[in-house]
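Suppose you are handed only two things: the residues of a chain and a line of SMILES describing pyridoxal-5'-phosphate. What would the bound structure be? This form records exactly that question and the answer produced for it, so the two can be stored side by side and reused later without any lookup.

QUESTION INPUTS
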Amino acid sequence: MRTDPLAYLDKELNSLREQGLFRPLRVLDGEQGAHASIDHCSVVNLSSNNYLGFTSHPRLRQRALDALSSLGVGTGSVRTIAGTMQIHMELERRLATFKKTEATVVFQSGFAANAGTVAALLGRDDVIVSDELNHASIIDGARLSRATIKVFPHRDVAAARAILADLPRGQRTLLITDGVFSMDGDLGALPGLCDIADEFGCIMMVDDAHASGVFGSQGRGTVDHFGLHGRVDVQVGTLSKALGALGGYVAGSRALIEFLYRRARPFLFSTSHPPSVAATCLAAIDVLETEPRWMEQLWENTRFFKAGLETLGFNTGESESPITPVIVGESSLAVRLSDRLFEEGVFAQGITFPTVAHDKARVRTIVTASHTRQELQFALDAFKNVGVELGII
Ligand SMILES: Cc1ncc(COP(=O)(O)O)c(C=O)c1O
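ANSWER OUTPUT
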């Protein structure tokens, strides 16, 4: 009889169950939204990256429907063979104008954009200097590149500089940071990192997944927010979070984009976006440029909710963005807090090791422009009750 070669997986899963870390997937019964039905429970949703509420914006929905009708449901090919439509090129031109760069290339996801770009730009003889909390897609891209990876403590520009100062002159080096860190909501040390990138001649790259549509004028990201146009060689953004659809892009020089067209493996070897996705993204940029109220509302809600959590006495870390962690320490406590909040009608996902350090487990909250003041107050009341019940505040 054949023995099951995957039997070890049961062991791993049981170990997660014993630690209380085996989480079933939460399932939305309908649309994504600030208030949603999840696992048949009506909850205030503080767990999506739908910052501006664009997943259900009528202009985006209509553009997707129009593209579905006129261009079909899929492209049937990778971009480099037969899968580039006019609408893909239009989106890339539009994004380049929006980001104030020469060109952009759109990938199937932000993950693919980061991993594909880092792995394409660097090779075995190169060095990658990376913030310790950078996203998994950067870490995977760095590993795929086979470059030497050197990690600096979170946001520590002096430590990054010391690493660079130790490298041989002329060493090809990528200096890379998230623009907004997804688990803590704080900003990358971009201005200081740009200075040392200039000093040592590094390639400077930022992953603006959580800054796209959230920071900078009309949501142009952290480079715009900090006034650093022209000093960051590679800007990654996503179309999957605030922009409401799916995808990632790289913005930079024409040479960078032409190189990625020919060397970035996810671009070369994975089918392109359905035209409806590209159309949705084009509509999202239109809305960003013409309806400032969504970003304004997002920030107003962010200020209200953050202040509420802080007043209640929770540890909310150093967040500067709509992502506000409620750090509790132990993984099991974070899971308990999240579960109890859900029972009280609030969905705020628990985040535990290995996504964050063992002693930094948390519940992560993300407010959106679509939350009403009543929904946010309801969530704060639930945090208060459950926080007291679990002895966190
Ligand atoms: C910091 C960061 N970068 C990149 C990504 C990947 O983006 P996408 O969801 O578009 O693949 C994420 C998504 O979770 C992220 O948080």
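WHAT STANDS OUT: The chain has a mean pLDDT of 97. The radius of gyration is 21 Å.
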